[in-house]
Amino acid sequence: MGAEELGADLLYTWDHFYPLYGNPDGTHFECWSLLAAWAALTSRIELGPLVTCTSYRNPHLLADIARTVDRISGGRLVFGIGAGWFARDYAEYGYPFGSAGSRGRALAAALPVISARWARLNPPPVRRPPVLIGGIGPRRTLRLVAEHADVWHAMFPSRPDELVPLVRVLGEHCAAVGRDPETVERAVGIEPDQLGHDLARHADDYLALGFTQVTLGVNGPAYDLGPVRDWLAWRDSVNAVPVGG
Q: What's this model's pTM, rounded to 2 decimal places?
Protein backbone atom coordinates (compact mmCIF):
# COMPACT_ATOMS: atom_id res chain seq x y z
CA MET A 1 0.00 0.00 0.00
CA GLY A 2 1.35 3.40 -0.99
CA ALA A 3 1.05 6.89 0.48
CA GLU A 4 -2.08 7.74 -1.51
CA GLU A 5 -3.88 4.58 -0.37
CA LEU A 6 -2.94 5.33 3.24
CA GLY A 7 -4.63 8.72 2.99
CA ALA A 8 -1.60 11.04 2.91
CA ASP A 9 -2.26 14.48 1.48
CA LEU A 10 1.08 15.18 -0.23
CA LEU A 11 3.90 13.22 -1.81
CA TYR A 12 7.31 14.85 -2.24
CA THR A 13 10.64 13.86 -3.70
CA TRP A 14 13.87 15.83 -3.60
CA ASP A 15 15.67 17.44 -6.52
CA HIS A 16 19.15 15.93 -6.11
CA PHE A 17 21.28 13.74 -8.34
CA TYR A 18 22.68 11.49 -5.61
CA PRO A 19 21.21 10.00 -2.42
CA LEU A 20 21.43 12.08 0.73
CA TYR A 21 21.13 8.99 2.94
CA GLY A 22 22.74 5.59 2.85
CA ASN A 23 25.07 4.68 0.00
CA PRO A 24 26.08 8.00 -1.61
CA ASP A 25 26.32 6.22 -4.97
CA GLY A 26 23.15 4.18 -4.55
CA THR A 27 20.30 3.94 -7.05
CA HIS A 28 18.64 7.26 -7.79
CA PHE A 29 16.33 8.93 -10.31
CA GLU A 30 15.78 12.47 -11.59
CA CYS A 31 13.17 14.52 -9.73
CA TRP A 32 10.83 15.86 -12.40
CA SER A 33 10.78 12.66 -14.47
CA LEU A 34 9.78 10.78 -11.33
CA LEU A 35 7.09 13.35 -10.52
CA ALA A 36 5.61 12.92 -14.00
CA ALA A 37 5.39 9.17 -13.41
CA TRP A 38 3.78 9.71 -10.00
CA ALA A 39 1.31 12.15 -11.56
CA ALA A 40 0.22 9.49 -14.04
CA LEU A 41 0.00 6.70 -11.45
CA THR A 42 -1.99 8.59 -8.78
CA SER A 43 -5.38 10.24 -8.78
CA ARG A 44 -5.88 12.23 -5.56
CA ILE A 45 -2.68 13.01 -3.69
CA GLU A 46 -0.90 16.30 -4.31
CA LEU A 47 2.75 16.00 -5.28
CA GLY A 48 5.84 18.07 -5.90
CA PRO A 49 9.56 18.59 -5.39
CA LEU A 50 10.93 19.32 -1.93
CA VAL A 51 12.47 21.33 -3.30
CA THR A 52 13.49 21.90 -6.91
CA CYS A 53 16.77 23.77 -7.27
CA THR A 54 16.81 27.04 -9.19
CA SER A 55 20.34 26.39 -10.42
CA TYR A 56 19.61 23.24 -12.39
CA ARG A 57 17.20 24.57 -15.02
CA ASN A 58 16.48 27.78 -16.86
CA PRO A 59 13.47 29.34 -15.04
CA HIS A 60 11.37 29.43 -18.22
CA LEU A 61 12.07 25.72 -18.80
CA LEU A 62 11.40 24.94 -15.14
CA ALA A 63 8.02 26.67 -15.39
CA ASP A 64 7.21 24.61 -18.49
CA ILE A 65 8.25 21.35 -16.83
CA ALA A 66 6.13 22.17 -13.79
CA ARG A 67 3.14 23.11 -15.98
CA THR A 68 3.43 19.78 -17.80
CA VAL A 69 3.50 17.75 -14.57
CA ASP A 70 0.56 19.78 -13.27
CA ARG A 71 -1.41 18.97 -16.43
CA ILE A 72 -0.56 15.26 -16.18
CA SER A 73 -1.74 15.23 -12.58
CA GLY A 74 -4.95 17.13 -13.29
CA GLY A 75 -3.88 20.11 -11.19
CA ARG A 76 -2.23 18.48 -8.18
CA LEU A 77 1.28 19.96 -8.35
CA VAL A 78 2.77 21.87 -5.41
CA PHE A 79 5.71 23.82 -6.78
CA GLY A 80 8.46 23.57 -4.18
CA ILE A 81 11.58 25.61 -4.93
CA GLY A 82 14.78 26.61 -3.19
CA ALA A 83 18.20 28.12 -3.80
CA GLY A 84 20.21 24.88 -3.70
CA TRP A 85 22.91 23.71 -1.31
CA PHE A 86 24.22 20.20 -2.11
CA ALA A 87 27.72 20.84 -3.45
CA ARG A 88 28.14 17.40 -4.99
CA ASP A 89 25.22 17.96 -7.36
CA TYR A 90 26.90 21.07 -8.70
CA ALA A 91 30.36 19.55 -9.00
CA GLU A 92 29.26 16.32 -10.67
CA TYR A 93 26.85 17.92 -13.13
CA GLY A 94 28.93 20.96 -14.01
CA TYR A 95 26.89 23.76 -12.43
CA PRO A 96 28.75 26.68 -10.83
CA PHE A 97 28.23 26.46 -7.07
CA GLY A 98 28.81 30.15 -6.36
CA SER A 99 27.90 31.34 -2.89
CA ALA A 100 24.82 31.26 -0.70
CA GLY A 101 24.29 34.88 -1.68
CA SER A 102 24.52 34.29 -5.44
CA ARG A 103 22.22 31.28 -5.24
CA GLY A 104 19.73 33.29 -3.20
CA ARG A 105 19.79 36.11 -5.73
CA ALA A 106 19.18 33.62 -8.53
CA LEU A 107 16.13 32.31 -6.69
CA ALA A 108 14.79 35.83 -6.21
CA ALA A 109 15.22 36.56 -9.92
CA ALA A 110 13.63 33.27 -11.01
CA LEU A 111 10.39 33.45 -9.03
CA PRO A 112 8.68 36.25 -11.00
CA VAL A 113 9.96 34.79 -14.28
CA ILE A 114 8.35 31.43 -13.47
CA SER A 115 5.02 33.02 -12.57
CA ALA A 116 5.06 35.11 -15.76
CA ARG A 117 5.85 32.08 -17.91
CA TRP A 118 2.95 30.12 -16.38
CA ALA A 119 0.62 32.92 -17.48
CA ARG A 120 1.92 32.71 -21.07
CA LEU A 121 1.97 28.93 -21.57
CA ASN A 122 -0.62 27.29 -23.82
CA PRO A 123 -2.23 25.41 -22.23
CA PRO A 124 -1.60 26.95 -18.83
CA PRO A 125 -1.37 24.91 -15.64
CA VAL A 126 -4.70 23.46 -14.54
CA ARG A 127 -4.40 25.76 -11.53
CA ARG A 128 -1.74 28.22 -10.53
CA PRO A 129 0.53 25.78 -8.69
CA PRO A 130 0.93 26.71 -5.02
CA VAL A 131 4.48 28.00 -4.55
CA LEU A 132 6.37 26.43 -1.66
CA ILE A 133 9.73 27.95 -0.73
CA GLY A 134 12.03 25.81 1.36
CA GLY A 135 14.69 27.28 3.61
CA ILE A 136 15.33 29.08 6.87
CA GLY A 137 17.56 32.00 5.94
CA PRO A 138 16.10 34.85 8.00
CA ARG A 139 17.28 37.74 5.82
CA ARG A 140 16.77 36.59 2.24
CA THR A 141 14.78 33.34 2.14
CA LEU A 142 12.05 34.40 4.56
CA ARG A 143 11.70 37.70 2.74
CA LEU A 144 11.11 35.77 -0.49
CA VAL A 145 8.54 33.64 1.34
CA ALA A 146 6.68 36.78 2.38
CA GLU A 147 6.80 38.15 -1.15
CA HIS A 148 6.06 35.04 -3.24
CA ALA A 149 5.16 31.87 -1.34
CA ASP A 150 1.89 30.18 -0.54
CA VAL A 151 3.78 27.74 1.69
CA TRP A 152 6.94 28.11 3.76
CA HIS A 153 8.80 24.86 4.41
CA ALA A 154 11.14 25.15 7.40
CA MET A 155 12.98 21.99 6.34
CA PHE A 156 13.98 19.45 9.03
CA PRO A 157 14.69 21.05 12.42
CA SER A 158 15.62 19.09 15.53
CA ARG A 159 13.06 20.72 17.82
CA PRO A 160 10.09 23.09 17.50
CA ASP A 161 11.76 25.81 19.56
CA GLU A 162 14.34 26.26 16.79
CA LEU A 163 11.55 27.73 14.66
CA VAL A 164 10.17 30.26 17.16
CA PRO A 165 12.50 33.12 16.10
CA LEU A 166 12.00 32.28 12.42
CA VAL A 167 8.21 32.48 12.75
CA ARG A 168 8.71 35.93 14.27
CA VAL A 169 11.03 37.04 11.46
CA LEU A 170 8.59 35.80 8.82
CA GLY A 171 5.90 37.90 10.49
CA GLU A 172 8.16 40.94 10.27
CA HIS A 173 8.81 40.37 6.56
CA CYS A 174 5.10 39.93 5.93
CA ALA A 175 4.36 43.19 7.74
CA ALA A 176 6.95 44.95 5.60
CA VAL A 177 5.21 43.89 2.37
CA GLY A 178 1.68 44.35 3.72
CA ARG A 179 0.80 40.68 3.95
CA ASP A 180 -1.05 38.76 6.65
CA PRO A 181 1.40 36.05 7.81
CA GLU A 182 -1.55 33.72 8.37
CA THR A 183 -1.92 33.52 4.58
CA VAL A 184 1.40 31.63 4.42
CA GLU A 185 0.94 27.95 5.16
CA ARG A 186 3.73 26.62 7.39
CA ALA A 187 5.33 23.23 6.73
CA VAL A 188 7.98 21.30 8.60
CA GLY A 189 9.86 18.07 7.92
CA ILE A 190 10.65 15.14 10.21
CA GLU A 191 13.77 13.04 9.56
CA PRO A 192 13.14 9.33 8.91
CA ASP A 193 14.80 8.19 12.13
CA GLN A 194 12.82 10.71 14.21
CA LEU A 195 9.26 9.92 13.12
CA GLY A 196 8.23 8.06 16.28
CA HIS A 197 10.15 10.36 18.61
CA ASP A 198 8.76 13.57 17.15
CA LEU A 199 5.20 12.27 17.01
CA ALA A 200 5.36 11.50 20.73
CA ARG A 201 7.18 14.66 21.80
CA HIS A 202 6.87 17.45 19.24
CA ALA A 203 3.80 17.07 17.01
CA ASP A 204 1.49 19.18 19.16
CA ASP A 205 4.19 21.84 19.63
CA TYR A 206 4.68 22.20 15.88
CA LEU A 207 0.94 22.55 15.48
CA ALA A 208 0.81 25.21 18.20
CA LEU A 209 3.41 27.20 16.22
CA GLY A 210 1.13 27.09 13.19
CA PHE A 211 2.84 24.28 11.26
CA THR A 212 -0.10 22.48 9.72
CA GLN A 213 1.80 20.59 7.01
CA VAL A 214 4.23 17.88 8.15
CA THR A 215 6.61 16.14 5.75
CA LEU A 216 7.50 12.63 6.90
CA GLY A 217 10.87 11.40 5.67
CA VAL A 218 10.74 7.80 4.41
CA ASN A 219 13.82 6.16 2.90
CA GLY A 220 13.99 3.35 0.37
CA PRO A 221 14.26 0.72 -0.72
CA ALA A 222 12.26 -0.74 2.20
CA TYR A 223 9.91 2.28 2.63
CA ASP A 224 8.49 1.43 6.05
CA LEU A 225 5.16 3.26 6.11
CA GLY A 226 4.20 2.16 9.62
CA PRO A 227 5.22 5.50 11.18
CA VAL A 228 3.27 7.29 8.45
CA ARG A 229 0.12 5.48 9.57
CA ASP A 230 0.74 6.70 13.12
CA TRP A 231 1.12 10.32 11.99
CA LEU A 232 -2.02 10.09 9.85
CA ALA A 233 -3.93 8.80 12.84
CA TRP A 234 -2.69 11.83 14.82
CA ARG A 235 -3.74 14.13 11.95
CA ASP A 236 -7.21 12.62 11.89
CA SER A 237 -7.56 12.93 15.66
CA VAL A 238 -6.62 16.62 15.50
CA ASN A 239 -9.01 17.28 12.62
CA ALA A 240 -11.83 15.53 14.47
CA VAL A 241 -11.77 18.10 17.27
CA PRO A 242 -14.59 20.64 16.66
CA VAL A 243 -13.64 24.29 16.27
CA GLY A 244 -13.57 25.74 19.74
CA GLY A 245 -13.40 22.24 21.24
A: 0.96
